[in-house]
Amino acid sequence: MKKLSFVLAVMLVFLMAFSAVAQDEPLKVVSVINGTLGDKSFFDSAQRGMDAVADEYDLDTDTVELGIDPANWEPGLLDVMADTDSYDILIAGTWQMVGFVAAHAHNYPDKYFMFYDAGMPYDDAEVCVDACANVYSMTYAQNQGSFLAGVYAAAVTTSMMEGTNDDPIIGAVGGQQIPVIDDFIVGYEQGACLVNPDTQSIVQYAGSWNDPARGKEITLAMYEQGADIVFQIAGGTGVGVFEAAHEQERFAIGVDSDQAVIVAETDPDQAERILTSMLKNVDNSIFRAVTLHLDGELPYGTTESLGIPEGGVGIAKNEFYDAATSDEIKAMVEAAEAAVVAGDIEVQTVFTSEDMMAGVGTACADMPTADLSIDDLMMDDM
């Protein structure tokens, strides 16, 4: 009997020690991207977020690249999900992956899922089994960040900077015509109209997220039509926008990440043509979500929208912006940003009720801010 008690005591000590070791193991976080790293944009921003949480919290992180073939995305995601020893939290994003995560997250109730750039259909029981209770999702008010990019573009195009002409024409290249890209563009056009109601915008969709040659071709045509500055909203295709800007000595606006800083690592001359970038701060949002998770405060089962006030979006104000941008244009951007934060300007969006206008190509006279001018806002800000 004593011998049995001794064995049980040893086993108990062992189990307690094992439990303590298990609790001390770092949290495992895996990022699954339906694309590849190196886009100098959206997915690279997500990776910076992963690097930040690994450094700050000493977490065990990994990134799985599923490639650009959509046929590989769902099976690739399911393979990672099924490897339950490899993660405690799985992070994914983009609207193309919503259905896959929603359909399978309930199979792993002891795991947590974070999703960026689209919300889960929590109220749709056919898609979100168990109401996706272990999934937190975040969207970005890209229309708000793009509104600032539009203010900037319209100011630049008539600034008489070297490389601009007298025509108030701006451009935008989208990867595909989908709601989230149109949301960028409606904000961009509204911001431009605030500065100059005579602004014309040329919009074209490349039909691809990974075709720099197509992006360059479209952008060269826009410059031929009189655009001085082109906003790229096309992922890897946007690399061609920057090439065209450099070749024609015109200007570009990047997207998602501070693309001028990234490009400057390999091509400083090209980077000087990227005057700013509309920032969709995926990195900040991932860091924020993991921090809230660790604090036990992340609201799983809900979607949060992160805009200018939350630091979810904005525009890059780096050395290239500072060098190329006049004090007057900087003041315009600051006044517009303050007005959005204060609630004095409501930026239009395609994700809204049917009775509120929001569409690409809307005339400036029909914009919600038609009765405002940037001069009014700058006076209010003084």
Task: Summarize the structure in words.
This protein has 382 residues and is of the alpha/beta class. The chain has two domains: 26-140 and 282-307, Rossmann fold (3-Layer(aba) Sandwich); 142-280 and 317-380, Rossmann fold. Helices cover 43% and strands 17% of the residues. The strands form two sheets. A six-stranded parallel β-sheet has the order 2-1-3-4-5-11, sandwiched between helices. The chain has a six-stranded mixed β-sheet with strand order 7-6-8-9-10-12, sandwiched between helices.
The total beta strand count reads 12
Order of helices and strands: HEHEHEHEEHEHEHEHEHHEHEEHHH
Give the termini distance in whole angstroms: 87 Å
Strand content: 15-25%
The number of helical segments is: 14
Coarse morphology: globular
Q: What oligomerization state is this entry in?
A: single chain
Low-confidence stretches: 1-23
Average of pLDDT: 91
Helix content: 40-55%
Total domain count: 2
CATH class of the largest domain: Alpha Beta
Using the 3D structure, state the CATH architecture of the largest domain.
3-Layer(aba) Sandwich
